[in-house]
Amino acid sequence: MAFNQNPNRIDRSVNDIFARRIAKLESQMATLRSSGADMVKGGARIWVQEIEGDATATDFEALHPFQTRDVQIYVVETVTPWAKFDVDVDHTDIDRVMVKFASAPAAAKKFNVIIVG
Questions:
Q1: Which SS3 state, helix, strand or coil, does residue 117 take?
Q2: Do residues 86 and 78 make contact, with C-beta atoms less than 8 angstroms apart?
Q3: What is the pLDDT of residues 51-95, one digit of tens each?
Q4: 74 — phi, psi (to 5°)?
């Protein structure tokens, strides 16, 4: 039995299906945007803030632009060997974290607070 359907009609049907699917996705994206959700294409966002020890302070505030507490924090030295430090972190607000060292870093010792969101 031969297939006698008009190819133009098939193209229109496929286009209609895709158009409906695209409209549904656009509606879902609009809903996400209105709810404050932030979607990122191509990977994570990274924010780096340098802090400097003064031999007395153990707590340092770091700000970020991500508007969420759902961030990961890493603290590394700014010079070789670029050691990573285990610190306590308080997510104090949607745009700031408090990094807490067990003991005060030496005066003029610099660290990068790397915030991934």
A1: coil
A2: no
A3: 999 999 999 999 988 889 999 999 999 998 889 999 999 999 999
A4: -130, 140
